[in-house]
Amino acid sequence: MSLGAGAGRLLGVALGPLLPFWLRRRARIGKELPDRLAERQGWHAERPPGALLWLHAASVGETMSLLPLIGALLEQRPGLRLLVTTGTVTAATMLAQRLPPEASGRVTHRFAPLDVPRWLARFLDGWRPDGAIFVESELWPNLSTALARRGIPAVLVNARISPRSARLWRWAPGLIGQMLGRFRLVVAQSAEDAERLRALGAARVEHWGHLKAAAAPLPADPAELARLRGLIGARPVFLAASTHAGEEAAALEAHRILRNRFPDLLTLIAPRHPARAAEVAALAAPYGGVTRRSAGGQPDAGCDIHIADTLGEMGLFFRLAGVALLGATLVPKGGHNPIEPARLGCPLLIGPHTGHVQALAARLLESGGALPVRDAATLAEAVADVLSDTRRAQAMARAAASVAEDASHLPGKLASAILDIMPAEAGPAPETDGPREKDRS
User: Fold this and answer.
1) Contact 396/368 with Cβ under 8 angstroms?
2) What are the beta bridge partners of residue 185?
3) Identical topology for domains 32-209+409-421 and 222-405
4) Cα 142 to Cα 125: distance, rounded to the nearest angstrom
5) Which strands sit side by side in the sheet containing 266-271, from one edge to the other?
6) 296: left (phi over 0), alpha (psi -120 to 50) or beta
7) What pLDDT score was predicted for residue 408?
8) Model confidence, pTM
9) What is the CA radius of gyration of the chain?
10) Where in the chain are the domains?
11) In b/e form, how buried is each residue of 221-232, taking b as 16+ CB within 10 angstroms?
């Protein structure tokens, strides 16, 4: 065990008694489900018979990128069962909404255990997965060690590591090299990510494309879409999608500027976290009539700014918009999935902060499928350019759609590679001689 891994184990052991208090605090503010806190300590395993793969995604974007892979895995191995863990309540909600009915009987969801050795041992000894798949940058020292001790093969998909993170990890080369070296396969988002991951110690690294680009089009209720289109009529529509603090202010200032040219403009703001809706509505109040979808408000003639504060409806709003700002790119959050609007023919505006989706954002910008913006003024200018030029909007939509289609093969290829690594005749493994839990700590 490296010095870094040893420090990680000591930290996990030391924090173990304190984390239940932290989890309860998160539950009080809606970031955990009170009746499922025990899952974060590895409890409530219900292992099904037969082969079981564990897939973990931290948040909404990573979870949504798993959906096409889930479909491909289940199609290629009919008897396979999947355990999907997430780190957030929102991701769990979205998984339940988007999981196809035919897959639901073969997929079980749990909240991920925290990186505490006892809790991980309890989780792994209870579920006994035949393999583990992690998304993007989920690197945890105690989990890595626990999987290696049990001989559970692990794969890292859609892997990314920023230049800054790569530089920081060089201060702990033993720890990062050990963690990355334990993955049987690492599939990077971009060629640059692949190069950095190899330099840090990953053994087998491939670059086959970006998994988020393979996601199916976001759904929308046809009747509700038609109803809203009837309410909006011919008004121009600007959407600020999945926004974070700071981006709503820029979108509202752009709205103010644009009203001089488009007096009937409707601006839709969909905050990434619906719990911020009241804050966003208060911020929007000086800019015109404001309604909130969660409160029954409508984007009708008396509404200038509509707060789209519901979950699972981004497919609806991308279809309504004439142009959309990609959230998490005007502030340093790294960017959300740009392929979602691209698949729906919605012209896209992208800010400078695209670290999480850099390869996809670069391709969209280079192909003409998106326009760059950096602040409220350039945002207003780009929105005006798209809304006033139908041909330009259509050309952007076609270019974006071509980028989105390029990765349609990836889930099947990735599923085949993962299943080749996993045991051919998998099933419940015998219990290990590792640590056993005699209490509920």
Assistant:
1) yes
2) 155
3) yes
4) 15
5) 290-292, 305-307, 266-271, 237-243, 323-326, 348-350, 370-372
6) left
7) 74
8) 0.79
9) 23
10) 32-209+409-421, 222-405
11) eeeeeeebeeeb
What Å distances lie between residue 229 and 224, 317, 325, 366, 408, CA to CA? Answer: 8, 10, 20, 32, 30
Structure tokens of 439? 């209490």
Give me the residues paired with residue 348 across strands.
324, 370
Both tokens of residue 387?
């809304």
pLDDT tens, 81-92?
A: 999 999 999 999
Residue 291 pairs in a beta bridge with 306
Would you call 102 a catalytic residue per the annotation?
Answer: no
Residues 90 and 88: their CA atoms lie apart, in Å, by 5
Phi and psi, residue 74, nearest 5°: -65, -35
Q: Which of 32, 62, 248, 340 is catalytic?
A: 62
Closest CA to 133 of 68, 89, 88, 184: 184
Confidence (pLDDT) at 438: 39
Q: How many whole angstroms separate alpha carbon 142 and alpha carbon 384? A: 51
Residues with Cβ within 8 Å of residue 42, at least 6 apart in sequence: 113, 118, 119, 120, 121, 122, 123, 124, 126
Flag residues of the chain having pLDDT under 70.
1-14, 406-407, 424-441
* Encoded tokens for 69: 């892979």
222-405 belongs to which homologous superfamily? Glycogen Phosphorylase B; (3.40.50.2000)
Q: How many residues does the chain have?
A: 441
- DSSP result, 142-210: HHHHHHHHHT--EEEEEE---HHHHHHHTTSHHHHHHHHHTEEEEEESSHHHHHHHHHHT-SSEE----
Find, among 310, 312, 287, 387, the residue nearest to 346 by Cα: 387
Contact 207, 215 (CB under 8 A): no
* Residues 222, 315, 158, 70, CA torsion sign: negative
- At 213, list the tokens: 């680009």
On whether the CB atoms of residues 355 and 162 are closer than 8 A, the answer is yes
Q: Which CATH architecture has domain 32-209+409-421?
A: 3-Layer(aba) Sandwich (3.40)
In sign, the C-alpha dihedral spanning 176, 121, 423, 214 is negative
Dihedral sign of CA atoms 192, 195, 197, 200 in order: negative
Calpha distance 261→185 (Å, rounded): 53
